[in-house]
Amino acid sequence: MTAFAWAPDSDTIYFTAPEQGEQPVFKTSVSNPKVEKVMGAFNDELQATADGKLVFTRSSLSQPAEIYRGSTSGVGVARVTHANDALLAELDMNPAEFVTTQGALNAEVQSLLVKPPGFDPSRKYAGLMLVHGGPQSAWDDAWGYRWNAQMFAAHQYVVMMTNFHGSTGYGQKFVEEISGDWGGAPYKDLMAATDWLESQPYVDKTRMGAAGASFGGFMIDWIATHTDRFKALVSHDGVFDQRSMYGETEELWFPEWEF
Q1: CA dist list (Å): 209 to 16, 53, 109, 170
Q2: How far apart are CA 215 and CA 195, in angstroms?
Q3: For all residues of the chain together, what is the average pLDDT?
Q4: Cβ atoms within 10 A of the Cβ of 171, count?
Q5: 8-state DSSP, 226
Q6: 128 and which of 104, 110, 157, 206 could share a cystine (Cβ 3.0–4.6 Å)?
Q7: Once rounded to an integer, what is the mean pLDDT over residues 116-129?
Q8: What is the pLDDT of residue 245?
Q9: CB within 8 A of 190, min separation 6: which ones?
Q10: What gap in Å lies between CA 239 and CA 218, rounded to an integer?
């Protein structure tokens, strides 16, 4: 759960939670604790109004957050603000595409793909794999101000962001399958996604790169010692010594749980 709001009836709770690269709105109630999905997309900062409406922000990988309003049944959703329209009119950004590949443990693994501005399928572009941190986190079809895929795509990269084992939004079992296996299933998932990206006719497989921070940095270090398929690697504040991390962190529960 990332945001929640009590309805005026003091019984119903509306909330957002990650689900397969999005953050839909769900509802449940004290009297009937069954969870129902109200609407999809990536929503946040949820509020329930006295007249039975929901007010929330919504964004995507090609649109910064704006305020929306709709009914508690999820119909009649309308955009309220247009704070970024003038700026976005000057930009060329492609929406995210969802890609599914066969990963480790015979699991289907989802990635988000962002193509560069002015994309021409007859051209050959460099490919870039972005690796998220956490590791219990995820890439979403949502706007962000750190590791924004559009910034990389603007430099003529085809960007792929894989939600490997350990990512949230795909069930608790999928999340837990990274613990004690940081370099196992997640690495296999990423290599399978890289295989898919390299197989696309518009990607030059001789110009592949990968970048990540935190756990993503750990994975970049792992990649550097396990394959030479990438021409460039960027490791930002990645864990490179788990013993040192254990001695320096105040979150001892984390390394004790993970390792």
Answers
A1: 34, 45, 20, 26
A2: 21
A3: 96
A4: 12
A5: T
A6: 157
A7: 98
A8: 85
A9: 129, 131, 162, 164, 210, 219, 223
A10: 5
Residues 6+ apart with CB under 8 A from 132: 138, 139, 147, 161, 163, 167, 212, 215, 216
CB atoms within 10 A of CB 198: 14
In the sheet that holds 36-39, the strands lie side by side as 3-6, 12-16, 25-29, 36-39
Does residue 242 surpass a pLDDT of 90? no
Q: Are 25 and 16 in contact (CB under 8 A)?
A: yes
Decide if 41 contacts 60 (C-beta within 8 A): yes
Structure tokens at 64: 């910064």
Residue ranges per structural domain of the chain? 3-87, 97-258
In our burial notation (b when 16+ CB lie closer than 10 A, e otherwise), range 107-133 reads bebbbbbbbbeeeeeeeebbbbbbbbb
> What is 97-258's CATH number?
3.40.50.1820
What pTM was estimated for this model as a whole? 0.95
- Kindly state the DSSP code that residue 105 receives in the 8-state scheme: G
Whether residue 165 contacts residue 182, with contact meaning beta carbons closer than 8 Å, is answered with no
- Strand ranges of the sheet holding 203-213, from the earlier edge strand across to the other edge: 97-102, 108-114, 157-162, 125-131, 203-213, 232-236
Integer Cα distance of 215 and 212 in angstroms: 7
Question: How far, in Å, CA of 6 to CA of 247, rounded?
Answer: 42
Q: Which two tokens stand for residue 49?
A: 């109004």
What pLDDT score does 248 carry? 87
Q: Which two tokens stand for residue 131?
A: 């690796």
Length of the chain in terms of residues written: 259
Quickly tell me which residue has 């890439």 as its tokens: 139
Could you read off the pLDDT of 41-81 as tens digits, one per residue?
A: 999 999 999 999 999 999 999 999 999 999 999 999 999 99
